[in-house]
Amino acid sequence: MAPDTPRKPGIARFGHHWRLAQETRTLTMLILGHVIVFLLSIGHDEIVAEMVADGWIFARFAEQFELLFGLVLFVCWGALTYRLMTMLQRARAGDCVCPRCNQRCGDPE
Q1: What average pLDDT does range 87-93 have in this prediction?
Q2: 10 Å Cβ neighbour count for 11?
Q3: What is the DSSP string of 46-88?
């Protein structure tokens, strides 16, 4: 079956439909990215110490490398947070319902 062939509606799919949604996968990857960056930021000084002990970095450059590693993690955290906030704002704007007229925001009355 070619990848561009449409699927028949009767085909059984594993998993729940909400797990397979693009937004759900994106949100899951963003949360996973936050967890990974958080865990790396907790142990970044130990990681650099192990890299010095294994000979990957010279001991005289350990402090600069640790600062650079922390800066890269900080930028990654900021980028993940920015993407998460834009995704949540877009979702909130799409679900806006006016409390007075009970219609979606931006719809003509």
Answers
A1: 80
A2: 6
A3: HHHHHHHHHTSS-GGGHHHHHHHHHHHHHHHHHHHHHHHHHHH
